[in-house]
Amino acid sequence: QVQVVESGGGLAQPGGSLRLSCAVSGFTLSSRMWYDIGWYRERELVADIDNVRNSSTYADSVKGRFTISRDIVKNTVTVDLQMNSLQPEDTAMYYCRARVPVDYWGQGTQVTVSS
């Protein structure tokens, strides 16, 4: 059974940083099977990464400020989103989406940027 477990988020001041983490397990992990894992806010893409392109995609609004990374330990893929130079407009509920290739969503984690 696929599990999508999110952590991180919270409150940050403008200009501050937060880190989100998404651990995905329970799916067939193979270089021959496509998967894509990413972070969305209000159901719009923030950043994602997949194992075929081996590259990342970012929303224009976060380029240069957010960095997505991936780590694989045993059969768990962890995708982190490092968010720097946070602005009030980054405030949103952030969701991890895992297409493995069936589509799964996490429960969401709140990010609030306020002074």
Average pLDDT, to the nearest integer? 94
What helical percentage do the residues reach? under 10%
**What is the H-and-E element order?**
EEEEEEEEEEE
Strand count, sense and closure of the main sheet? Answer: 7 strands, mixed
Assembly status: single chain
CA-based gyration radius = 14 Å
Q: Quickly count the helices.
A: 0
The best one-word shape is globular
Note down, in words, how this protein is organized.
By secondary structure, this protein is an all-beta fold. It has no helices and eleven strands. Helix content is 0%, strand content 57%. It is globular.
SSE topology:
Elements (H helix, E strand, L loop, with lengths): L2 E6 L1 E3 L5 E8 L10 E6 L2 E7 L5 E3 L7 E8 L2 E8 L8 E8 L3 E3 L3 E5 L2
Parallel strand pairs: 2-11
Antiparallel strand pairs: 1-3, 3-8, 4-5, 4-9, 5-6, 7-8, 9-10, 9-11
From the structure above, extract its key features.
115 residues; mainly beta; seven-stranded mixed β-sheet; four-stranded antiparallel β-sheet; globular
